[in-house]
Amino acid sequence: MTVRKRKSWKHLMFVFIGSFLIAGLVGISSELLMRRTSSLWVAVLFLLAVIGVHITFDIIGIAATAANEAPHHAKAANRVRGARQAVYLVRHADLVANMANDVVGDVTGTLSGVMAAAIVIDIIRLYPTLGTKEIWLSTLMLALVASVTVTGKAVGKSFAIQDANKIMAWVGCVLAAVEQITGRNLTGPKKRGGKKDGTSRKNS
After folding, report:
1. Is residue 99 classed exposed, middle or buried when 0-12, 13-18 and 19+ CB atoms within 10 A define those classes?
2. What pLDDT does residue 167 have?
3. What DSSP string runs through 68-137?
4. In this structure, what is the dihedral angle of CA atoms 188, 193, 199, 202, given to the nearest 10 degrees?
5. pLDDT tens string 50-76
6. 183 Cα distance to chain centroid
């Protein structure tokens, strides 16, 4: 019981610190970029990129919970690139979903709202006559951002459930490349098979 509580606290601290650092880094970067960006279209493209990141990580989080370990174990046995990382991600689906859907999702969701408000301010600055309609512009922009995000996530959910194993294989390849470039093992020791008793978390 004590060990479980320690793991729970470690997980919560990891989520808190991770979300704080990600939010701070993304917030500062976006603020500097928005201040240096004189073109309204560049700001809109950056907003769409943030929404795209939100949708992408939502797909990854859902795919991790829907994927099966067995196909990735078979590929890992044949030393297919990224298969070992995919096994790690599927086995830790709860942590992956928490980081992808909650941490990254909430940070990018908040950031997209802030950026939408900044774009409205830029529009009013460029077209002062629209100042009297600021509330309508803000409402329209926020509603547009929300509808694009929700629609994208709805499409992404179907894709994530249907092709969960393919998505995790792709993410595993990306992680394998990151580990090779940085020289750091981010997905645990190199082991074959499932858990210590030889079983996998998902066999169906």
Report:
1. buried
2. 94
3. -SHHHHHHHHTT-TTHHHHHHHHHTHHHHHIIIIIIIHHHHHHHHHHHHHHHHHHHHHH-GGGGGGHHHH
4. 70
5. 899 999 999 999 999 999 988 888 888
6. 23
Residue whose entry in the numeric block shows the structure tokens 């809109």: 44
What amino acid is encoded at 128 in this protein?
A: P
- Residue numbers of the chain with a pLDDT score lower than 50: 1, 3-4, 192-204
Q: Are 104 and 59 in contact (CB under 8 A)?
A: no
CA atoms within 13 A on the CB side of 92: 15
Angle between helices 70-77 and 164-182 (to 10 degrees): 40
Q: Taking a C-beta distance cutoff of 8 angstroms, is the pair 66, 167 a contact?
A: no
Which tokens go with 105?
Answer: 């999702």
Place of tokens 């201040």: 35
Question: Which of 141, 146, 143 has its CA nearest to residue 121?
Answer: 141
User: How confident is the model at residue 36, as a pLDDT?
Assistant: 62
Query: Which pair of structure tokens corresponds to residue 152?
Result: 């994208």
